[in-house]
Amino acid sequence: MSQPSLSATVANRPDGSALLELLKPITWFPPMWAFTCGVVSSGQPILEQWFLVLVGIILAGPLLCGMSQAVNDWFDRHVDAINEPHRPIPSGRMPGTWGLRVAIAWSLLSLAVAALLGPWVLGAAALGLVMAWAYSAPPLRLKRNGWWGNSAVALSYEGLAWVTGAAVMIGGQLPDWRILLLAFLYSAGAHGIMTLNDFKAIEGDQRMGIRSLPVQLGVQGAAWAACLFMALPQVGVIALLAHWERPWHALAVALVLGIQFLMMVRFLRAPVAQATWFSASAVSVYVTGMMISAFAVRALIPGP
Predict the structure, then answer these.
(1) Once rounded to an integer, what is the mean pLDDT over residues 108-132?
(2) Which candidate, 162, 139, 135, 167, places its Cα nearest to that of 151?
(3) In the predicted model, is pLDDT for residue 246 greater than 70?
(4) How many CA atoms lie within 13 A of 158 on its CB side?
(5) What predicted TM-score, i.e. pTM, was given to this entire model?
(6) If you ran DSSP here, which 8-state letter would residue 1 be given?
(7) Which CATH architecture has domain 17-298?
(8) Quick check: 179 and 38 in contact, CB under 8 A?
């Protein structure tokens, strides 16, 4: 029996561009930003622990978020063949079981790096890893229902990353309750952001039995749900900042929300056509409010 040639063996391996596309660098920003918000809100000196901050940002973005994208692409390969056939796995640029191998390898690498930051971060990373696999993989495959799936992603990308960033700065302790509350509210708002990603996949979701919110509620109903999920938690943040006697921060977040309202009007007129624009534009404004809130809490928490 003849052995496969070296050229054939190499041809069956993905190239670097396919690997990078599988890990979707554009999706790394939200958890990296949330982690940084946690760092800021902790009230601790940042430059003195710059190495922990840097490793934590890498863990939140390229590692854990990249892992979640690889897991999702592997278990979504049949849906992507309909919605996005150019993706690395359905297009054949990530051949065989390479997508699954990358997902497993990135999971193990993420846990190894998390262990360097202490037991609290390792536990948080393990929870995020479990949620990522539960979101995409059978038998749970939470993404089959938009309510559960979007909640899992929003909690991981925003809340868990925020709390972890704060915990890293204070030696693995439980962060101040005000930090936890802000992280929860911005996680709830991120549920709406996750819904925006589902408008581009309605046809494939319907054919594959995935009950995203646009499938369950219809295009217009899901658009309103996304806007409400984004807006209402921010109203809560504004009220809290005012109650905590941070009026200027509250006003700044109110202005941020006002800009989003103007964008929502355009989005609601044509949700499918405007979902990508709204996701890119409004989310950038949304995360600005997160950092403003982080600085507000930082001013309330006693330093070292």
Answers:
(1) 91
(2) 135
(3) yes
(4) 30
(5) 0.90
(6) -
(7) Orthogonal Bundle (1.10)
(8) yes
